[in-house]
Amino acid sequence: MTQTEAYTPEKIKQMIKDEDVRFLRLMFTDLLGTVKNVEVPISQLDQLLAGKLMFDGSSIDGFVRIEESDMYLQPDLSTWMVFPWGDEHGKVARLTCSVYTAAGEEFLGDPRNNLMRVLKEMRAMGFSDFNIGPEPEFFLFEMDEKGNPIKKLNDHGSYFDLAPMDLAANIRRDMVLELGRMGFNVEASHHEVAPGQHEIDFEYDNAISSADHIQTFKMVVKTVARRYGLYATFMPKPLNGVNGSGMHMNMSLFDRDGKNAFFAEDGKDQLSQTAYYFLGGLLKHAKALTAVCNPTVNSYKRLVPGFEAPVYIAWSGANRSPMIRVPISRGKGTRLELRSVDPSANPYLAIAAMLEAGLDGIKNKIIPDDPIDRNIYSMDGQELKSDHIEKLPATLHNALVEYEADPLMEKAFGTHIYQNFLDAKKLEWTSYSQNVSQWEQERYFHLL
Hints:
The chain has 13 helices and 17 strands.
C-alpha cells in the first residue's frame, strides 16, 4: 500500500460518481492517538478542497483553548480511500487530514504535522525516507447481548495454532480481505502466543503513510470483529498471566539515491556506520522514548520479565530478549526492530520520537555498546552491570521523569505537543495512583 498514487480533485470526483460515494469521513488524530473524524455529505467536497472546512479544536484532547477553537482540516489527497462496505445510503470514502489554524498555518499541536516537521529535518541531513514496518497485535473478546465487551476470550489457541484451537482464522481472513480491498499489502496473519491474541502484519511504507495505515488498520480490525459479535482491543495487557500486545516497529533510513542507508556490504555484520549511530541514538534515549512508545499505565504491565516483552536496554541480532533486534535481512531489507512499542502509542508521535533519537545518534556519532547475544532474562545483577545493561522504566511515572529529563523530547515534539502530552500523562498517573484497585481490596481488606 502506498500513498504515492496521484489523486487529483478531478479523479476523486470521477470515483465518487462511479462508486456512488455519498459521504466523506475526514480523519485526523488527537494528541493521545485517538482517531477523530468529521463526516460530511459529498456536497461539501469543494469546500474541503478549498481548505475551508472548519471544526472546533477546543474539543479535541491536547489541541487548543476555547478562545482559539476555530481550526481547519486540510486533506491529503493521496490518502483517498473508498471503504469497501456501504448500504442503501451509498458508500463512504475517507481522507486523512492535517490540521491548520484559523490563520491558515500548520497547527503545531497536530501529531501528523509534527511528524512532517521531523521528516524535513531528516531530509536536510541527506536522507530521503524513513520507512516503517509495524507489527500490531490485538485481542478478541466476546460481547454480551447488548453489544458490550465481556472478559471472555473467543478462543484458547496459542502461537501459530490452527483450527479448532484457533477459532478466529476466518475472522482474520475477513480482516485481511477488507484491508486488501483498501490497498494494504498484508504480509502475514496468525494467532499469537496468548489465548485470543492475534497479529496481522502489513508491508512497510514511508513514515507518514505507515502512521496513517496503523490508524486505519485499527478501525478495520474493530469494524470486522463487531460483525462477528466480538470486540477487538489494542490494550497492551488486558489480562493477567498471559503475554501482552506489542507493536514492534521495523525501521530503515534511505538516502537520496534510494539506497538503504543502514546497509554496507563491507561493514561489520554488513551494517553501515549510519546504522550503528542510529542504533546508538535509540539506546541513549530509550528511557525517554518509553513514555511515548508505551504511553499508558497499562503499558507497563506488559513490560515485565516472563512474557516475551523487552525489559532491558540492549540490542542483538538473533536474540529476542533485548529491546532492539537487528533482523538477518540485508540489502534493501536492512532494518532495526524496536520491540518495546505497544499499540496504545500514538504512531505519529512514536515514529517522530524514534526518528529524532536516531538522527541524534547520527549527528553526535553515538556508538552503541556491543550486542548481547545471551538471554538477558537469565543474567544476574552483576552480569547486567558489567555489560552496561539498564532496565526500561517500570511505570508510567518513571517514564515521564525520563521524558522530562531528556531535552530531545521537546525537540522531537515542539513545545506545544511536549507540554500537553506531559500534562495529560501526569493527570493519568495521578488518577491511577489515587484509585483503590480490586487487587488492593482483596489483598488488604480482611488482613488489616
